[in-house]
Amino acid sequence: MGQRKSGHVTLHDVARACGYSVSTVSIVLSEAPLSQNVAASTRARIREVARQLGYHPDAFARSLRRRRSQTIGVLAYDLSDPFCIPTVQGIQSGLHPANYLPLLMDAQTHRKLFDSYLKMVLERRAEGVIVIASWVFEETNLLADIEKNHVPIVILGRDLTSRRIDSLLIDNEAGGAMALRHLVELGHRRIAVIRGPEELFDSEPRWAGIRRAATEAGIKLDPRLVFQLPGLAGPTAGFEGGRALARKMLESGIRFTAVLAFDDLTALGVVRGLTDAGLRIPEDCSVIGFDDVLPSVVATPGITTVHQPLKEMGLLAARWVLRAIDAHEGTSSSNIQLHRASPELVVRGSTTRAAQSRVRTASRRKEHA
Amino acid sequence: MGQRKSGHVTLHDVARACGYSVSTVSIVLSEAPLSQNVAASTRARIREVARQLGYHPDAFARSLRRRRSQTIGVLAYDLSDPFCIPTVQGIQSGLHPANYLPLLMDAQTHRKLFDSYLKMVLERRAEGVIVIASWVFEETNLLADIEKNHVPIVILGRDLTSRRIDSLLIDNEAGGAMALRHLVELGHRRIAVIRGPEELFDSEPRWAGIRRAATEAGIKLDPRLVFQLPGLAGPTAGFEGGRALARKMLESGIRFTAVLAFDDLTALGVVRGLTDAGLRIPEDCSVIGFDDVLPSVVATPGITTVHQPLKEMGLLAARWVLRAIDAHEGTSSSNIQLHRASPELVVRGSTTRAAQSRVRTASRRKEHA
DNA sequence: AGCCCTTATTCAAACGTTTGAACCTCTTGA
DNA sequence: TCAAGAGGTTCAAACGTTTGAATAAGGGCT
Questions:
Q1: Tell me, in Å, how far CA of A248 is from C1' of D1?
Q2: Which residues of chain B (237-256) touch nucleic strand D at CB < 7 A?
Q3: Residues B74-106: pLDDT tens digits?
Q4: Which of A18, A177, A206, B81 could in theory staple to A49 by disulfide, Cβ–Cβ 3.0 to 4.6 A?
Q5: Within 13 A of B316's CA, how many CA atoms are on the CB side?
Q6: Bridge pairing between strands A101-106 and A191-195
Q7: How crowded is residue B30: how many other Cβ atoms within 10 Å of its Cβ?
């Protein structure tokens, strides 16, 4: 009856209630090796009492004593980016079998939040950290602290091997090339490209891949058809950006039969922009994106895109940290790793052969020239 | 130099490094009231050394001693449901100012995961729990444990006041009515309805609201035009369901000029299904959804829908738990609360006046009759 | 009897904090 | 000169676990 002030049932309570010592109860409930030596009847009794009282071991006390938190900090730069979710799920599924718990935090694109969460992760003695970051996380000085405390860290979405951090990211170069090749194979020659914002790490290599593929295919990308997304803010920035640029494309008066957008949200914005102007997708203009997020799947037409194996990447990231933790047991760090995941083309309804589309676009375009 | 075995810098280390006792260091670094009495020079010195060493207080030890975890468990039934994200963000923003940290877990619709996470939340001594659940969380016996341990709990998305749990949810009845009224005001009379799956709590009241509004408007809902989503599985189940049912609608041969879908994903599925059959949205048929998730914003046409103020609800949920924790300090529980958030209609491109659309649909329909 | 082994249980120290109480060493006022 | 206070710092106990070492009681062996 007498409730402890904390309001939580402790080993002590269970011990008192069943007449055994705290040690015995602990040994039984935590299934320590010694528990083989405990009489079966005792075990049963203790378990029963614990259950009745609703006992749950205190993770703080336990972690303090065991010096293991069984926790991995997962820092997402913005959960509302559909990009993050599958990654997180991959991480989760990698951590769960090893009995590790992700300590998931959403920085909501705020640099300050990011820093303060990183600190918290450290304070909660996460044994490792996974950062999902396209762009935050430039130069946080907490990184130094992480090192000082010997917490292994893996970053997803950027190459930071130069700073001696294990990194996983999509092969943007290959992905960009893949997207352009797809359009070329459909017969498109006059292709508008929307590059990513400068702050974004992915922008450059993706663009490089696009140019390489264009060169290989013997196609010149008209510089007047190359646009760039402005800096980002909010979850629908890509959409609005794509929409605005679509309008610009039409106003430019240059002929094009396909748009290669930086990512899916941008592609969806382009679709909206072109549709508003009276074009039909894909008949009058093909549109391709990058990422393969949910909205691309459920939009009509579905957006052809370059799929990132996010779940797999998350899973791998989880494996890496766990391995690093194990290694740490031994001693010293292994070598810094870099993984470039292979993108995959997903063809949906937003792209089609160029043949007739070129004509239509041309005729339509006059209205906006 | 000599690294402690734990690899973490402790108060002890800082104390040794600067020649003061652990107590003094603790008092300074935790900014305890006593720290006014500590010489300014000492304070500065201690802070400096702590910084240099990369000291971060051990949250376990601290929570253990202070008997406060500053943590609220947040259990989402499925983070990949776009529905969850804004809610989580709302919760986060409600917790942050009070210096509480959400312990976010994603059950990924797995009942077992849900239970095991709930246990973990309890073990980590969360001071409160917020559950985002449309459907999991039927009868988990852990609920009893939660009560035994006096952890305040709030549920989002269901009414569980009958089980003495504070609950927040959207006013489904009003939302359903709102959706139907919108269609009626646009002149639609022959409206197809897709009800939610039975397991889902929201399905029934939403449907009730629809019927009430129909009656009030003097409209009969043709039972042959009322469909029901099958049980759900996976994030795109709603989409596939809507798509399949759209086909069924057309095959039924019954005339309709608008579809009221259970939620946005379903609505998007309907759009796809109808479009595939050659109809145009909204000219040939209006489609309305429910929830206002990201894909509805970025699809073309944008999906007209009933907005749920998820961020606000999350914020309120956070406030409630915090209040409950404060109250707990005092003693005894206040009364169980229920909040029905008011939905809001968001008109986008997927709905339009019925006048011409009825004709077109009729003429189109022949192709599929 | 004495010894060792097994079985069943408990002791007590430790994990890294926080904090009420205690301890010094000065001033200051009477 | 002493008491009282203030300023500055430390003691030591506690939070709820875990775990190596210790204890105790029973056998079986020589």
A1: 94
A2: none
A3: 999 889 888 899 999 999 999 999 989 999 999
A4: A18
A5: 18
A6: unpaired
A7: 13
